[in-house]
Amino acid sequence: MPNYPRVFVVRHGETEWSLNGRHTGATDLPLTENGEKRVRQSAEALVGEDRLLTTSTIKRIFVSPLQRARKTLELLHLPKNIPVEETEDIIEWNYGEYEGVTSKDIQAQREREGKGRWNLWKEGCPGGESPEDVTKRLDAFIARIREIQGEAVENNEHGDVVVVAHGHILRAFTARWIDDPIMSGNKFLLSAGGVGVLAYEHQSFDEPCVDCWNITDGKGVGPTISRPKIPHIG
To answer: Do 12 and 69 form a contact (C-beta atoms < 8 A)?
Structure first.
């Protein structure tokens, strides 16, 4: 009997801007050489029938159209017969005026303008997306996944889904997956190349949960496995 469906979220590997802390939204940067190397190591450690990401149980793959995500998916070497869909539903948060700017420089700019400390999760970005904008597109995307997985359960099929995208959008996605406000995404740090597993407790679509988080190749990118206490904000 197939396992109850899961969602594997995969953050793309390192880019030049992620390495130096610049906010990278729609800017279409490639992975660095080291970024590609790390993704290959993660794939070797995590992908396979006896590993975390069991390829035979994957029903659908969704990937951001930006090259850093598409290259990461390519390097995972998942079976070619699995349907892949590029979708802007999971493109990175639109940073607007803060595109390409580090958090340190953003804070310095806001101090000069007499503004308080910036919080992406509460304010969004000037000239870019608000938390409400991101919530709307992610909720629609989650509804699609639940439909796919619901049909898989009804048909007694495997229904795992892989989502390859970006840091902030995957953290926001995880918050909405567990029905938390998007601001809970600030609790889910996700390393470049990191993997998270979302699931359903008690095999119930009414109980979405986080199984494990920020899994990497175990060679210095981040914790090998982390099972966080999930925050719920009233």
So the answer is: yes
DSSP class of residue 213 equals: E
Helix (H, G, I), strand (E, B) or coil at 195: strand
Residue type, 91: I
d(CA 173, CA 139): 8
Provide the token pair at 161: 């889904």
Question: For residue 52, how many other CB atoms are within 10 A of its CB?
Answer: 17
Active site residues: 12, 92
What pTM does this model have? 0.92
* Pairwise CA distance, residues 103 & 22, whole Å: 7
| CA distances (Å), origin 207, targets 116, 124, 152 | 37, 28, 17
CB distance 197 to 178 below 8 Å: no
Q: Which two tokens stand for residue 125?
A: 């970005």
Q: Which two tokens stand for residue 153?
A: 């359960």
Residue-by-residue pLDDT tens, the chain, 234 positions: 688 999 999 999 999 999 999 999 999 999 999 999 999 999 999 999 999 999 999 999 999 999 999 999 999 999 999 999 999 999 999 999 999 999 999 999 999 999 999 999 999 999 999 999 999 999 999 999 999 999 999 999 999 999 999 999 999 999 999 999 999 999 999 999 999 999 999 999 999 999 999 998 744 333 334 434 333 333
74: Cβ contacts below 8 Å, ≥ 6 apart: none
SS3 call for 209: strand
DSSP string of 134-164?
Answer: HHHHHHHHHHHHHHHHHHHHHTT---EEEEE
